[in-house]
Write a structure and sequence with these properties.
Length: about 80
């Protein structure tokens, strides 16, 4: 299956140069879960603080087990600080 994989803010550093710093198209096996996509580019699961699939928030307890489907768009944000 193919998914669109986007990393934001400091996580963009994990993407390969051909991604133009925004997104890549991943080819994953059927039944792949969010950590499988993160592992493809060595993104530590602990850095995935906000995760969206098709613009819908994935709750923190579900990140480690949520299956992906063909055509999904996975967006991952690190912790965001402010003051």
């Amino acid at each position: 299956m193919k998914i669109k994989f986007r990393l934001y803010a400091t996580l963009r550093d994990y993407l390969p140069p051909e991604s133009n710093g925004r997104e890549v198209l991943l080819d994953l096996p059927d039944g792949a879960i969010i950590p499988d996509a993160l592992a493809r580019y060595a993104v530590p699961l602990g850095l995935a603080h906000i995760v969206l699939i098709n613009n819908r928030h994935v709750l923190r307890p579900d990140i480690a087990t949520r299956q992906l489907k063909d055509g999904d768009e996975l967006a991952v944000f690190p912790a965001i600080g402010g003051g």
